[in-house]
Design a protein that fits this description.
The structure holds 2 protein chains of 2 kinds. By secondary structure, chain A is an alpha+beta fold. Chain A is built from 11 helices and 7 strands. Chain A folds into 3 domains: about 100 residues, Acyl-CoA dehydrogenase/oxidase, N-terminal domain (Butyryl-Coa Dehydrogenase, subunit A, domain 1), CATH 1.10.540.10; about 100 residues, Butyryl-CoA Dehydrogenase, subunit A, domain 2 (Beta Barrel), CATH 2.40.110; about 160 residues, Butyryl-CoA Dehydrogenase, subunit A, domain 3 (Up-down Bundle). In chain A, helix 7 packs antiparallel against helix 9. Chain B has a single domain, classed as Non-ribosomal Peptide Synthetase Peptidyl Carrier Protein, Chain A (Orthogonal Bundle). Classes of the chains: A alpha+beta, B mainly alpha.
Chain lengths: ~400, ~80
């Protein structure tokens, strides 16, 4: 008889559970970065506090958190450990991509429920070698083998793929489908072979373990989400990803802003009566941070308000805004990290000490590159051509 | 030296009071005694330096710095929290 692991419910209020995970993430952030390893302790803490299922609707065993709430958690985690924040953000964008597009499938609904009851971690395999980096086209395809489907994909990046319990994989609907006729397939790690093709030794975000893999899956045919990936991507995956990534980056920006504030105050204590030079730069930094906060908050609210309005979510106007959010937020986090480095000087440049901003500075450089801003801007430019008003 | 004594020394140096801090009661209004809001920033920084503490945002209010007693009790609260 198969054993089902039921996570013991953590009865503490959400805020306390999040505070616990944030404390664990902060404790291991330096070690995760230095060793370029997965933040296992923080993700275990998410599991034991039930956070991995929190975005699922209550009917599926989750907590039905809004994007505003998820964004606030992502910010707090990202402020403690950027990689932990990104894992949280990527995981929940996958959870919602499944749970909002069940299309009446009972077996997919049961699977989604397991995310909460068993606290499953979900990764995504959307990029593929040989397609020029465009996640909206696939070369691999779903191959029917009896009542199962076979899927073979050469993925240059699957973030935390080896750690995940489920991987959501894009592929062409069948061998004859056009590259853009994609579906999303939910693969259980038990039905999945991942052969690593590359490591993850990077400038920043070193804990996301975004290794390359040759993926070979044989899963029941009902694990193919019936709805086209096109709709899942524009209505859920992109909006949720961009809002939650931007939230993580906002958290990182808040942390270096705090470090800068402490640094300037300590300089002021040494020269009482005169305003230290860093204070003027700090004014600019805080102004940028406030702009960042209202941008992220506004887009999270707008996405929540549209959550039942599929036509609007799939519309051109919203797509333009959600793309711009990613580009602008990634630029803001890099600018704020740079400003923090200028303010804290050599103390910030150091990898150790209370005024170090080095780790977040490095992590912040990844924001513009993970799905390159140039590619997003090129897509947005195409959308602008057809946008009305 | 008690926290209150140290606070009085800081006030003498930075608060620009019209009379020495020793002549003021612990609950005397420092703003009425001549401390400007600009001087209160210097008092805040000097108190942080003297006790090796940092006031959190919620204590950075006019009431925290309005008397020798209010500053001293804020300091003692932070020192206890750190202990």
């Amino acid at each position: 008889m198969p054993t089902t692991i039921i996570a013991t419910p953590d009865a503490r209020p959400l805020d306390e559970r999040v505070a616990h995970v944030v404390a664990v993430a902060a404790r291991y952030a330096g070690e995760v970065d230095a060793a370029a390893r997965f933040p296992a302790e923080a993700v275990d803490a998410m599991r034991s506090t039930g956070l991995l299922g929190a975005s699922l609707p209550v009917a599926l065993g989750g907590e039905g958190l809004t994007l505003v709430q998820l964004g606030s958690i992502a910010s707090r985690l990202g402020g403690a450990c950027s990689s932990t924040g990104m894992v949280f953000a990527m995981h929940h964008s996958q959870v919602l991509s499944l749970s909002r597009h069940l299309g009446g499938s009972a077996s997919l609904a049961i699977l989604a429920g397991r995310i909460a009851s068993e606290q499953l971690l979900i990764a995504s395999a959307t990029t593929e070698l040989g397609i020029g980096g465009d996640v909206r086209s696939s070369s691999c395809f779903v191959d029917l083998e009896g009542d199962k489907v076979r899927l073979i994909k050469n993925a240059p990046v699957i973030s935390y793929g080896s750690e995940a319990d489920l991987v959501l994989v894009t592929a062409r609907r069948n061998a004859d489908s056009a590259p853009s006729d994609q579906v999303l397939v939910v693969c259980d790690s038990a039905n999945l072979r991942l052969e690593a093709t590359g490591g993850w030794d990077t400038l920043g975000l070193r804990g996301t373990a975004s290794m390359g893999y040759r993926l070979n899956a044989l899963v029941p045919a009902d694990r193919v989400i019936p709805e086209p990936y096109d709709a899942i991507s524009s209505e859920t995956m992109l909006p949720v990803c961009h809002v939650l990534w931007a939230s993580v980056w906002l958290g990182m920006a808040r942390t270096v802003a705090d470090t800068s504030r402490h640094y300037v105050r300590s300089a002021a204590r040494r020269s009482i009566g005169s305003v230290p030079p860093g204070a003027t730069r700090l004014v600019d930094l805080i102004a940028e941070l406030e702009r960042f906060e209202s941008l992220v908050d506004g887009m999270a609210r707008r996405t929540d308000e549209l959550s039942e309005n599929r036509a609007a979510l799939g519309g051109v106007g919203f797509a333009v805004s959600i793309n711009n959010l990613k580009v602008t937020a990634s630029e803001l986090v890099a600018q704020i990290a740079m400003a923090a480095l200028s303010i804290t000087g050599i103390s910030g440049y150091r990898n150790d000490g209370q005024y170090s901003v080095a780790r977040i500075f490095r992590d912040a450089q990844g924001a513009a590159l993970m799905v390159h801003n140039d590619r997003i801007i090129a897509n947005t430019a195409r959308l602008i051509l057809v946008q009305k008003g | 030296m008690s926290a209150t004594d140290t606070v009085r020394r800081v006030l003498d140096t930075h608060a620009k009071l019209k009379s020495p801090a020793d002549t003021l009661a612990v609950d005397a209004d420092l703003y009425a005694a001549g401390m400007t809001s600009h001087a209160s920033v210097n008092v805040m920084l000097a108190v942080e330096d003297a006790f090796d503490i940092e006031f959190p945002d919620e204590l950075l209010t006019k009431t925290t710095f309005c008397s020798i007693g209010s500053i001293s009790s804020a300091v003692e609260g932070l020192l206890e929290a750190a202990a």
